[in-house]
Every structure is written in structure tokens, then in C-alpha cells.
Amino acid sequence: MQTVSRSERSFSFIGALCFVFLILLTPALALEKITVGWESWEPYSYADEKQQMLGLDVEIITAAAKNAGFEVEFKEYPWKRILHNIETGELDLTCGASKTAEREVYANFTEPYRTESAVLFVRKGTAGNFPFKELKDIIPATFQLGVETEYFYGDKYAELMKKEEFAKHVETVNRAELNYNKLLKGRIQGFLTDPFAGAAYLKKNNLTDQIETHPMPVYSDAIHFMISKKTQKVNLVQQLNDAIKKMKADGSLEVILNKWR
Q: For the whole prediction, is pTM greater than 0.90?
């Protein structure tokens, strides 16, 4: 019968102990990062005073990425620069994107994860002065319309912008907050915006008694994650689609949506 000496037992014990400590001290393998372009746009994406990322889209992409096995790295740019960086591959993706033929040239889209709409904001008490039923009714009116560069306001708006008689009524800015100032100074008579983002801005800046929503419908659209065709992350679209489906099925997506409604 073989016997084990005291020294051999001691060596085995020390070796096992070192192995346990090695496991405990070794950091967990880091998740692969995906870069997500964002623009400050409450309540969808913004940073608090401690520069912590908050917002509806921030929570959804963070949760979806985790489900897909990724860690998110947020990079802030103006929206026009985000689209450029998606096209060049400098960013992997962005949130809150409408699918258009122009964007499909350089980007892929996940399945929808929420809906988005646009409304017309005007000065408080002036909606009745502009009895518009649809966007084309602006053409014969004395009305300048504010929009943000590179934002999608629906197919009807896109078609109208091809007509000079409508386009001459439209003024663009590169930051949404500029339209609030232009409206209050009388430089435009109204502007298009997301109703939730608009309501958050009005509340934050104490403007709810100065600006109102016009009853004219503008558009409602499905919203996606827009992923660069030049991303180095293989199967990223499918992985995020699987994550979105899982979050819809287990109710976690609805929980996030309800939190921000």
C-alpha cells in the first residue's frame, strides 16, 4: 500500500490553497465593448451632475447589450456627427433611430424596441391661429417651421421637403434647444419635436406656461437600434435582436418603458 508523507501532504495542501487564492484574485473576464453614440435628449439619453448616463434609451441599450454579452461605452456627439460616425464605423451603433432608405445604405437596423412620434410646438395660446390639419397646410400660411438637422419627421415630411413651396417655410438648427429660443423670440411660429423630449425640456426650463402642443398630427414611427455596417462586432444585429425578443417576452422591456412614460 502506498503511503503519503507529511511533507507531500503539506505540499498538496499549499498548492490547493494557492490555486484557490489565484481564482479569487483573478478579475472576471471583461465583456466586449460596443460603442454607442448619444446626444443629450431627455428623457431618452442624458447625463446627470455626476456624469452618470440616464434615460429611456440608455437603460434599454444597456440591458439589451448585457443580454447579448456586451458592455456599453457611450460617446457623445451631435446627431449629425453620430450618423457620420455610424457610416464610417467609428461608432458601432446608436439608439432611437428611424429606418430610412438613405440610412440603410450604411447601417443595419434591429427590430423595433419602441415607437416614436413628432408633434408641433407653438407659442401658448396661438394654436388656434394656425388651423392646420396636416403639414402641407403650412404652405399658404405665414408660418416658419423649425426642425433639427438630420432628424426624421416621417415620410410625409420628407416628401414635402422636395417641394420648394414647403421647404421655404422650414428653418434648421443643429441643436433642438435652439428652436425653443427661436420660437419665444418670434423668429419661427412653431417647431417639430418628440412629445416626451419636448415635455421634459419644458418642465426643466419652466416653459410649460409659454409653449403648447398643436393638435395637428405629424407622424408616429417604429424605432430601432441603428448599427454600422462597418462594425467589427460579428452578428451584432442578430444578438441584439435576440436580446430585444427576450426582453419583450420576459416583460423587462415593458418595465423600462413604463418607468419613463
A: no
